[in-house]
Amino acid sequence: MIPGFNHRRRFRDLSEQEVLALAISSEEDDARIYRTYAEMLRDDYAASAALFDGMAAEEDTHRKRLIDLHRDRFGDVIPLIRREHVAGFYARRPVWLTANLPLDRIRAEAGQMERDAERFYARAAQVTSDAGTRRLLGDLAAAEGGHVDTARSLAHDTLDAGAAQDEDAAAHRQFVLTWVQPGLAGLMDGSVSTLAPIFATAFATQDTHTTFLVGLAASIGAGISMGFTEAASDDGQISGRGSPIKRGIAAGVMTTVGGLGHALPYLIPDFWTATIIAMIVVFVELWAIAWIQNRYMQTPFLRAAFQVVLGGALVFGAGALIGAG
């Protein structure tokens, strides 16, 4: 049993006053979330920050109207009841989990917040038998639907086509600088730099187990080295390349993956079967690098393919010659 779960109230057991209090606290929480989004985005995405400021102001307006309704019907004392007190009530993602999301995901998260609230109130209104509660829940569903329309209107007024395109371009650039560029550098390093030791060992020993161990060590060692090098080389404050931890993870993981790709086939006992499969994997890795360069770095595909295939072929040839000698 989940700790504390048995202490949560069922929605159908709440009184009309408690449902109204729950709506008030939910509106207050959502306003805080939108203001947090605005502060997170203000430096880099001013237009989207203004959009969330407007949505927070709308939540404040609805909260005040709900408080006025509570005062008229039940008095000034509002019961303390929040989402986490009610079983089955829609949950909000903790703000710290959205801090590192891209801009389009944060916008989508906000839209989902409004749709969740509208859907919950509408469903709750359908299952209640009390006419007063049913009417209240229907009003709340309509209010949440109005929030969705208001958010769209605010987006239209605040984010014109130029601002939206500029912010999307900035978000894409940040994604490329923080994740794609260091990840690509790692993949290239892992795929190419490990070719020589792996294939030199393979042709020198023709022992698949030894070759695999060398490849595993080379891949993990290169991944650790690339990860720490990327993280320590630039804190991202002046260059704008983003968090050094994120870049270090991208570079380290992709370096390891690039090396393991053609090391894993040597788990196969037969030497030539493992070597042929490893060569095929190398070919796929190099073309994947060329595709990523073309897709995210705007490098012409043929030029990217020529560079990585030529470089890979030279390193592979060096490893094979050294191993054969």
CA distance, first residue to last residue: 65 Å
Compute the number of strand runs. 2
Strand arrangement in the largest pleated sheet: 1-2
How many domains comprise the coordinates? 2
Query: Helix/strand/pairing class, anyone?
Result: mainly alpha
CATH topology of the largest domain: Ferritin
Given the structure, what is the number of helices?
Answer: 11
CATH class category of the largest domain: Mainly Alpha
Shape: elongated
Question: Helix content range of the residues, please?
Answer: over 70%
Order of helices and strands: EHHEHHHHHHHHH
On the 0-100 scale, what is the average pLDDT? 79
What does this structure look like?
With 325 residues, the protein is mainly α. Strands 1-2 form a two-stranded parallel ribbon. It is 77% helix and 1% strand. The protein folds into 2 domains: 5-159, Ferritin, CATH 1.20.1260; 170-324, no CATH class.
Fold topology:
Elements: E1 9-10, H1 16-41, H2 46-74, E2 86-87, H3 95-98, H4 103-127, H5 131-158, H6 161-193, H7 195-205, H8 208-233, H9 244-261, H10 271-296, H11 301-324
Parallel strand pairs: 1-2
Helix pairs in contact: 1-2, 1-4, 1-5, 2-5, 4-5, 6-8, 6-9, 6-10, 6-11, 7-8, 7-11, 8-9, 10-11
Kindly list the characteristics that best describe this protein.
elongated; 325 residues; 2 strands; Ferritin; mainly alpha
What's the gist of this structure?
With 325 residues, this protein is mostly helical. It has eleven helices and two strands, in the order βααβααααααααα.
